Amino acid sequence: MVSLCVTTLETEAVRQLTDHPVGGSTGYRSWRDCATAALPARWTGNAREGFAGKRDEIMHFNLRKAAVVSVLPLLGGALAVGATALPASAQTFQDTALQAFNLTQPTTTTGAVVNGVASGTGKGSTLSFTAPSGEVFTTPSFTAGTTDASLTTHTATSLVLTSGGTVTGSGKLTFTIASASSAVGCSATETVMVSESGGALGESATPPSTTTETVTVSVFNNNTNGTVEFSATVIPASCPVTFSESNLPPGLTSGNPLVPGSSAPRTGNNFYDGVRYTVTDSLGSTFTGGTFDLYVFGHELTPPPPPPGNFGDEVNPFGNGFDVFQQHQAVNAVIAGWTATQADPATHFLRHAGTVSGAFQFEYAPHGSGTVLCV
Fold first, then answer.
1. In a 3-state reduction of DSSP, which class is residue 192?
2. Side-chain-side CA neighbours of residue 35 (13 Å)
3. Cα–Cα 20 to 30 A to 131, which of 73, 141, 160, 288?
């Protein structure tokens, strides 16, 4: 069952187009009401049966989300749509350029951290720190506090604490992480709160780390290739940094430069706001909290043809199917019963799953892609 309100297309009078099982049309008849009745002849294949004593019915286009039609499963003939419902087709886009604006500077600095590895129990247990490749430890200092541990190894790439007994207590280890290359000026100072329990050593919490480095970020919109390029003034200048972005719109990938992808375009007052970026130095220290807004320029791509079995016409056993009268592509355009033919764009539809079980939407698709106009 479906309730159809018919509105006029050409005049103030409300009219309808009637259909015949042989594919003809009797023209328009005046009608000023909404009807709820059994499925019309072009769906059931019973030409005029069920219409005696009732007003004739007609269907019109509506916006995709507004109309769902219950259809009996009589999908005979080569043009009939397939048995599998097709979800609403997704839009795809090709970006041509990006532009960043309203850039803010980082607000939070976190120094690089090297975590220790605990080994053993009781007397002689250890807590070891190993410098990552290309990095070194400098100026290590251990305050035993209430522990019985000592710094037994302190090379450029390895620090080892070893317990001397089975006491329970706490101490503190500090050291600087630096680049192994004297040409790179990045550094961070880590503080480890060491715990000892019955001789077993460990970290009482995630070690904090600080850095004296500062960064000032700039952004350049490259109008030649449409990318967004980030750069930073770093103190010390010999400390290299990289950039990454988060909270990007779908279709864009983090990087520097940030390059066009397949995100939905937004320009003018409609832009992507609150995109975040992170600056990371060569040791792993990070500078976060900076944001920017983003314009995306581009266009929608023509979607690929629908998969077989979900593109065609709703055809009854007599060969009559949906037909967009005079190929009028607009809301409230008349849908007539007509002889189905593959050559006529007016008979081309996509079938979508309806909002209730057993119901379908038929989206007009004269050239293979949806028009957001549904029966």
1. strand
2. 18
3. 288
Per-residue b/e over 187-217, b at no fewer than 16 CB within 10 Å? bbbbebbbbbbebbbebeeebebebebebeb
240 and 311: one domain? no
One domain, residues 259 and 229: yes
Separation between Cα atoms, residue 291 and residue 214, nearest integer Å: 17
User: How many alpha carbons fall within 13 Å on the CB side of residue 15?
Assistant: 14
Interval 270-279: pLDDT, tens: 999 999 999 9
The Cα 189–Cα 174 span in angstroms is 7
Please tell me the predicted confidence (pLDDT) of residue 342.
79
| Biggest distance spanned by C-alpha atoms of the chain | 104
- Whether 77 and 103 map to the same domain: the answer is no
Mean pLDDT on 35-40: 32
Q: Are residues 157 and 282 in the same domain?
A: no
The pLDDT confidence band at residue 103, using thresholds 50, 70 and 90, is: very high
Question: Which residue type, as a one-letter code, is found at position 148?
Answer: D
pLDDT at 84 over 50: no
DSSP string, 121-165: SSTT-EEEEEPPTTEEEEEEEEE-TTS-EEEEEE-SSEEEEEE-S
Residue 249: give the domain boundaries: 95-109+212-300
**Nearest CA-CA partner of 328 in 362, 302, 364:** 364
* Percent helix, percent strand, percent coil in the chain, to nearest 5: 5, 45, 50
> How large is the C-alpha radius of gyration of the chain?
36
Q: Give 256 or 63, the one with higher predicted confidence.
A: 256
Q: In a 3-state reduction of DSSP, which class is residue 347?
A: helix
Residue that finishes a domain, picked among 169, 192, 210: 210
**Would you state the structure tokens that stand for residue 185, as one six-digit string?**
């000026």
Q: Are 232 and 171 members of one domain?
A: no
Mark whether 168 and 127 lie in a shared domain.
yes
Residue 132 token pair: 């990552």
User: Do 356 and 268 fall into the same domain?
Assistant: no
CB contact at 8 A, 134 and 180: yes
